Batch of 2 targets.
Target 1
Amino acid sequence: MDSMVENIITVKNLVKKFGHFVANDHLNFEVRKGEIFGFLGANGAGKTTAIRILCGLSYPTSGEVKVGGLDIYSQRNDIKRNIGYMSQKFSLYDDLTVYENIRFYAGIYGLSRKEISTKSAMLMKKLGLEDAKDKLIKDVPLGWKQKLAFSVAIIHDPKIVFLDEPTGGVDPITRRQFWNLIFEAAKDGITVFVTTHYMDEAEYCDRVTIMVDGKIAALDTPSALKKTYSASNMNDVFLKLARVKTVA
Amino acid sequence: MNTILFIIQKEFIQVFRNRMMLPIIFVVPLVQLIILVHAATYEMKNIKVSIIDLDISSTSRQMISKFEGSPFFIIKNTSFSEKEAQQEMKKGNVDMILHIPYGFERRLVKENAAKVQIVINAINGASAGLINAYSTMIILDFNREILIDFLSPAMLTATHNINVTSSYWYNPKLNYKTYMVPGILCLLVTIIAFLLSGMNIVREKEIGTIEQINVTPIRKVQFIAGKLLPFWIIALFELAFGLTLGKILFNIPIIGSLWLIFLSAAVYIFVILGFGLLISTMTNTQQQSMLVSFFFMMIFILMSGLFTSIESMPEWAQRLDRINPIAYFIRIMRMVMLKGSDFHDIRESFYSLVVYAVGIIGFAVWRYRKVT
């Protein structure tokens, strides 16, 4: 590997078991600083399990994991300062307004009141949510909620942001807009780690990992993967990998 | 510190944005005080009596009129048949049968002694005891009058009489409302604090926001402090509101220091919040949390000494009651409000609550896991 490239996440022999079920079976990969790293796989392939371990929400059974150069076992709280996380379940409070949600999360990340007011004003302007400032989250459309949840996840300028199926259930246009936000964050130097099962989204990533049944089946750039598996798009790559697995 | 303020702010917004919350805070205490204080009384009034008077003499009538004149008894029916009276009792129409046998007056005159029979429905043992005591008192009273009528006053003074007069301390008029209000207030504070804290963290688990908080560098202690303080404030406010209502509606005495009441309440509420929090960390849905909370609350309330006296419980139950926070607080409230006890008098219960609060909150914090 190119020695000039700095790895921000390194995972060696990561194993996570739930009883007898092996959710993550000896995962090995690195994420490079500043890239958009896609984590692909069918439902139940072990994506969420892996992302939760990387975020410090779940203990690995064994293996070595470093996030931002910090050890997942001993420096958990330092890691948390440097990462953002958006889960597939909605992480905004339905009974708080747009502004109250921003203020709360910024507040528990330790931003000062002054920072909060400038940040939230900027954020609402960027998302075009200025008129919805005092609207309750439950009255805001899903697409906007997702964009807001993403912006809240990076409100403390983390080094890495983890997105767990961030675009579930929205239309292609909103998904495209959401990805524009991701590109913007990447441009600002935030490393993006994103799981998805939309194969078109895989094309937007710098590199993708495809997980099948708890194991990494492939890891490369989308174009290299398409070449290797002689497929015209990522969907075919995925189907080929998944089919190999079912035959085996 | 700042972090805690953001959590407190958020909790307050959520509590008061909930449309059900304000009625719960203001109407529940009012209804509880008015209904429970009047309904949960130890006094027995309107005891329904069936009379079988087989003597039909002036003496038996005199005795019946004694019962009629008492505020405790109502004569429901009179008959000459025991069977009929028993039927009435079976149906639940009467609580007691007064049976005056044939030859009652004659025996009284001739032999200086006569018997009457009293049959009491004792399904509720406590009220049967009361009925027995009331009717014995009436018959004794009647007995004394008879003596004066039958015997010469000279002989009456010759017999030695011991008169017992009693005075009741701390509640001279035996007003049950006075006795009940402090206990009901305890319940009120308990229910509000227990349910609010028990449902809170588990609700965040259900909607998934807990993950988002666990991924931040916030410390467990900060998070839990931010979660508990709003409910602590609400529960203390609730107590103040309830005391005010009790004063206005029932003119309950508050003989001891208000400060002492609130100091004890401040510690006690932490115990209850800790309990709720512990349940919240151990359950995964609001429904589970609710059921577990009710289980504990039922036992604690029934064994709290609110309705029955702790001293008359069996030894093992009294020992078990040492882990019942409600029992400590009700004892403190009654002592301070009705007896005017000072800190020295309640110190044992108070320190028990302090130890309890530290222990249970410590356990809940330890039990709360940011990582699974």
Target 2
Amino acid sequence: MTGKRYGAFVLLGMLIASFPACVEQPLDAEYEDEIAVFGFLRGETALDSAAAILITRTQPLKELYTLSEAALSGGTVTMTEVNTGLMVSLAGDSARPGLFYNESLYIRSGYTYRLQITTPDRQVSAETTVPESLRVTSALKDDSINVVSPDRLSQRVPLYLEHGDSEQLIVVDMNCRETWETAEYINPFFGRTRPGSDAEFGGGEDTPPKHITAVGRFREMGDIDPDGGCTISWYSSMIAFYGSYTLTVAAIDDNYHRYLTRTSHPEMEGGIQGGIGVFGSLSGRRYDLFVARQ
Amino acid sequence: MNRRMTAMLLILLISGSAAAQDAMIHGYVRFKESREPAISVNILIEGTNRGTVTNMKGYYVLPGLPPGNYSLRFLYMGYTPVTRRVTLSAGLDAELDVELIQTNVQGEKVTVVGERGERKNDVVAGRITVTPAEFRRMPQVAEPDLFRSLQMLPGVATLSDFSAGLYIRGGSPDQNLILLDHIDVYNPNHMFGFFSTFNTDAVKSVKLLKGGFPARYGGRLSSVLDVVNKEGNRNETHGTARVSLLSSSLTLEGPWKKGSWMGSFRRTYLDLAASLMDIDLPYYFYDGHFKVNYDADSRNQVSLSGYLGNDVLDIETAGSSISLDWGNRTFSSQWTHLFSSRLFSHFVLAGSEFSSNTLVRFEDVGFGITNRIDDISLKGMLSYSHTSDHSLDFGFESKMLDFGLDYRIVDLTYKNRYNGFSHSAYIQDNYRFGGVNVLQTGLRLNYYSEGQYVRIAPRAAYKRILSDYLDVTLTWGRYSQFLNLIQQEGFSFADMWLPVDATFPPGEADHLIAGISYDPGRRISVEAEVYYKKYRNIAEYRAERGADEEFAEMTAAMNFLRGDAESYGADLYIRNNIWRLQGWIGYSLNWIRKQVDGYNFDKPYFPTYDRRHTVTVMQDLTISGKLRFNLAFKYGSGQPYTESTARYAVMNPSGDIYYTDLEGEKNTRRLPAYHRLDLGLFYRTRLFSLDSEWYLQVVNAYGHENVWFRRYDNTQNPSQQEDFTMLPLLPTFGVTITF
């Protein structure tokens, strides 16, 4: 056999040997039917309709999504106060599909609560221990809207925080309640006065986000004074748009913390066994702000 | 001194000493037009199977030759073959320096000679040498780019049109050892990874080793890209000016005393052009190369080279600003010394610095990352040629590494400092026996101070020459890596390198490569290789942070997740020089799978750069001495992407409900196939009595909408799939003037 023929033979052999494995395995991503739970228990508050837990089923991506279709049906939802053994059933809100509550249950700081969802094909459970309340002292009113002038945003309103546990996880959360269609920049962003898309409003594309959250241990919030408290304030940079905001300053549990801080699949990290979402708890204050156009 | 070293080396040699009556031929090969050293010139002793190649300084030696008459043939791509006759007497050392003459300067005609001589005496798997002339014959986006040229080679995968990153045989860009004049370049990217840092006008040679690299190289798991700057014309002063839509560059070179110099500078002017149109585009990059050589005598040469490059982005708007700058700086001082005709040495003292600063400021608060790498290296690379069939390579490398990574979060700065020493020593025996067998056995010892890691990296390669046209090779090697990269897939600007420590073991890889090379003559050559790579302890960036983890003094285990991977496939590389048509056709078949602890539900996945089939065609047609036409076509089967599997409602503590999609396992679906045709037309003429070449290029000539990434718009109900596409049809033009 000449060198040329031999070479052609070997080359051909190598190629033939490698091709049978070339066929691409079809790796279809199939629809995942999951139960999604979003619940945030607030210390020293009844589990009423305002604090209801959202329980839905996932829906196929390319089908019309409605909450009434997605809302959990045909199952039972119970909540157990682990410390006392008290168990109550949660009923669905007839006006708001997917939301479950029982206003007879009073959530107490330091107590552990177990959520149990039973459907013919699923068992979903989750547990959270409500943190001891974060005491917040501020000139901000928590029973009415605090109107803020844009030119006074940089004049920070101090919030004095106190908590018995310096290791407690704390969240400072500023959330714009406007929609992207109605939102308007306080400082025009690259010449634009309004966000061009929901993604831009949400903070994508290197733009100011509508929702900024700071999370850390209590000891990391600032310099702790001799009385065990510390002073924080919101930064003007947390407010990019005119309109309504909710400022939450609270102690949070591990479930909510993991959900907030995971960048990959946070819905798997919120403490839901057998489902997705987050079952967390927080104890603190919530303030409504309104940044008025001048 | 010389005798002592020679004696020591002789003891190390496995084989018996050469007969005392044997003679040798040695010398330098240079290009006549510039008198620059010619690297990798094939030197064949006619009528025998013997031969050698010139090294990085154009030096060659053929020892152990019996007395007699010899005819030596010197072959190099694009240069007229040279034949020299030498008569050797017993014990005589014949010094034979040769100058090569370019075949066809006007048309930059390149002769595909193959690398037969090199292949007969050396076993280096997956080696592809690309010359600057070849870069310039390929249609490019705006201007010639080294990495984008390499992306057209089989075995080199791409992520997107926007990334010049090199994904070589399943390896990621951080697993490529990129050397510029023998010093590491850590982040060789401009424009967020769109272009590479090397100005092709300043580059003399580029050698890509796609795997199984010899003991001389180490420190990375996948491949080696060895870039050498031009030394400069030793005859007369020359210059090259290049104007493209993106940038302008000027390269000057010339002789001085007993040596040469070269300087090159390039800057983009997108910012300046945009400002003329009243558009604010505050971004630019620049880079510069320089090199000075001094040929002290026939046994000693010294050189000093450097590189400086920077990217700057400064966006200032009411209430916020974004400021980014990143860049590399390197210097390399080299001393080449011939201890004897048989013992060639090359010593390098070099430094490389990379720094990046990112600062995003909203009103009175800022968030930023500052990353810095300082690398001071001392290397020695020696080669002893005992006979023309037996040689020994050996050397050492010591690195002093200093890393800094600072996070600025609001008012606080979290500092991370890492210092370490890396030491390596290698030895490689190159032995040819029976006339048709070449065996290379090597060993590299690596040590890293943080964690006290010692890694033994054996290498072995065997070649069987089946005929004048055909040889087969089998290569195995073990590799280790002490550095890991924090990188966002697809964009490269502030990528951060961090070393391993006691908490995270070094990466390791085994390469097994079998190849066949078929080179029947001047018209066509074929190379095919199959390979398998097994990776251990690869690092995936750990984006998550626990509540108790600080941003300061982070260990490697806090920054990275540990994983394993395997890659296998085949490359086919057919080069042609038929009629007026020169170029190549490449085909790659590749699988790469990773499994990383605590990532993707602990399940294996295909990384985004996993592409099963890639076909590349690059052809250059010389229409006349003045006119050339070329095309580059690339087809790639679909890249994997992560598909959403469902939609669900999310509620925040404020009670707001919105909708999002549920992501499934990583990269289980494939995007549509990628294909793109680029065309180029080059016309040479005289402009103000200067040689000039005008070019018109069309990128993506038929305007195919290649999908870059896919996502779902959840503001729509039902969710709407959105495809974001890569480069559209894009005409560019420019001119190169030489003087």
